[in-house]
Amino acid sequence: MCFAGKFWGASEWLLDKELYFCKYRNMEAVRTKTNTERVAKYADMFSAMGTEARLRIMQLLLSAHPEGLVVGEIQEELDIPSSTLSHHLDKLKNEGLVQVQRESTYLRYTANTEALQELLQFLYAECCTRNKALKPRDIVQLCR
Question: Is the domain of 60 the same as that of 98?
Answer without folding.
Answer: yes
